[in-house]
Amino acid sequence: MLTHRALPLGVSAIRLNVYPLEAVMPGIATQFVVLERTIDKLGASGNPMLEGIAQLMKANSAFAYLGAVGPSLADFIPADPPVGTGPSTPASPYASLWAIVLGIAGGDGTPTDPGILYVINEFKRLLDKIEGIVVAQDLGALKDLRDSGEVAVIEQVADQLKVIVDGMLPRVAGIGAAITTAMKPAVNVAPGSPPPPPQAWSAREWMFWKHPGRFAQSLVSRAQASGDPRFLAYAYGYLSSFSGCASINPFLNSVVGSGHRQQWWRTRWVGNYADTWVHGFYARPTVMAGDTPNPPYPQWTGLCDAALHDRISLGSIDPVAVMTGLRQSAAFPSVLPADFSKFWMSAWEDAYGPPPLTSRFRAGALNGAYVMTWMKLWFQTSGLVVGCPAKSLGAPPSTCGSAPPWVDPNVPGDNGSGTGPKVPEPESDPDIGEIISGAILAILGVASFIFGGAAIGAALLAAGVGLMVDGAIQIDWDKLACDIFWLRMYLNNGLKALHDLLTLGGFTHPYPSELALDTTTITLLGIPYTFDSGKRLAKSRPLFPKELTGALHREPVGSYPTKAWDGGLGTWTQTPTASSPGVEAPETAAYLVAEYLSFAVADDIGNPLSSTSDVRTGTSWPPGERHLPGTLVPVTFANAVDNAVDLIGAAGSAVPDWNLDGDRGMAWLTWQHVGPTISDPMAVAGES
């Protein structure tokens, strides 16, 4: 069964250790945009060979998109629970973390805890059904609600909600521990400590830091030798991802203030905002006039229902069945073709040699990594979990007056331990509309459980249901319509609170409208929390050492890279400064210009491909950093799309081993720490 646990660290010191990371990179949504625009550019090139490649990728689009996931597939290697016999290694920290998140969404498989996904959908269904009864003013349907036994289902849902929330705390604690401890890169240790040997690396550290160019080249060579259009589409998609990493990561690092090695969760959080910006910017023709987009951010296409999981679909996957399998340590569905896994591992062996028996890399682990990647995209972009922003309800009916205090589930004292919805007291001749209103309030008021409120509870529900009687003479449909309106608003507010919590935590993407503000304040359970958003997360912040400031940019900001995050929960939303936690020496350059993400993604006017900005041309040690000819100015790679077209056009030739994390700055080769211990300032050399 997947559990959250750190990978074991090696205890023996060796004199030259490759310095790996769990890498930050453009998110999958951004990489998909790079791929799509690369295919468009290949198809419009006028070059028959490149046009043929574009057609091949379109005809095998699922494999091309899977290739665009790139080395991020290793996030979930291994992801599958150990089943039967054979080599077994701990699940990757990221896979373990997502297993916890999916466990909350899918429940524990018992009738009392079917998961938040089921409960939210049940409340939506019930609300829609009752609203239809009100619109039709159907007294018979009101009575049927009681007589059909659906009241018992509603009460069961109320009980399920209580179980979910009661069990939330240990699950959230597990998520916090996974983020702050288990996700910490293995090599992120204090000066004076020995860097752990490769046996302690996560699969993702390996793929970003150990001969990434050699592996990409091996994929292309193997695919070309096979002639299999699926493998070719994947290899070309992988080159697109390689270009995206090399070209965009320095940009993102300047926003983060460091690389993933030092700010491992902030990079993922920033990456979600970057994905929203890039997806929205390229979904329709958009122009930036300074910091103002046209069309404006609220009109941009969001990721909440983009269904990105469908783009890598290679067969049928039932997300509920997968969540059940995770819970029961059952094997994942076999979706990834066996010959593809063999092809991938053959390229891996070309680049690195045969894996040892205990290696995380094996053909059997790739299927689980694929399924978990699909599940992550389903959770974030299917629209079936939290979903998109609720449509405006407009003004309440004129007879409703002002909103009752329980409408906002973030206000303590109003939605749980406080007043809660009022159930009417029995009267000698009660109005059934009033009775049903009270019952609905009691039923749907327990939705506060999802968002942290204490029990309004099944007892209140039962009291409301007990008041339903036959023989009513008159129904107050206006009052019932008002109750439905406020309940709809209550549910919308609650789902927004859940979205805010997931966005703040780094598990899902913000809505495009949230990009319009430089800072965002959300209120969760009465506590306001303010953090950077908008252009502060979508626009680069030039960070470079003082000796380069005069010639490079008129407004140098800070120094790069800052030292490691202290692991404080929630602080990943705060920009690290040069004074706290300090700057890692020697300082290097993260980025040289202040631009929006389009500059690094596909800007062939402001950031076109040139002989000095291509990813395909490498460099050597020392210094390991590519400079503009005759200067000490580091190279800023041209946009990712131009570089992807260039790499694909030369597919089969050597690919430089760029540090795909952009860790030391722009255009750095993969590197290793020199000496038996980590020094300060850092001493590094080329990867052996």
Summary of the model, kept short:
The chain is mainly alpha-helical and 688 residues long.
Give an overview in words:
This protein is globular. The protein has 688 residues and is mainly alpha-helical. 44% of the residues lie in helices and 4% in strands. A hairpin with a 2-residue loop joins β4 and β5 (527-532). It contains 22 helices and seven strands. It has a three-stranded antiparallel sheet, with no helix packed on it. It has a two-stranded antiparallel sheet with strand order 2-3. A two-stranded antiparallel ribbon has the order 4-5.
Distance between the termini: 36 Å
Summing up helix and strand content along with how strands pair, one would put the structural category as mainly alpha
Note the main sheet: 3 strands, antiparallel
What radius of gyration results from the CA coordinates?
27 Å
Give the low-confidence spans: 1-24, 83-88, 411-473, 550-557
Number of helices: 22
Mean of pLDDT: 79
Output the keywords.
single chain; mainly alpha; 688 residues; two-stranded antiparallel sheet; disordered N terminus; 22 helices; 7 strands; 3-stranded antiparallel sheet; globular
Would you spell out the secondary-structure blueprint of this structure?
Elements: E1 16-18, H1 28-43, H2 48-59, H3 61-69, H4 93-106, H5 116-136, H6 139-147, H7 150-166, H8 168-182, H9 203-209, H10 212-226, H11 229-256, H12 264-283, E2 287-289, E3 292-294, H13 319-328, H14 338-352, H15 363-381, H16 432-445, H17 457-466, H18 477-505, E4 519-524, E5 527-532, H19 535-538, H20 549-552, H21 598-601, H22 640-649, E6 671-674, E7 684-686
Antiparallel strand pairs: 1-6, 2-3, 4-5, 6-7
Helix pairs in contact: 1-2, 1-3, 1-11, 1-12, 1-22, 2-11, 3-11, 4-8, 4-13, 5-7, 5-18, 7-17, 10-11, 10-14, 11-12, 11-22, 14-15, 16-17, 16-18
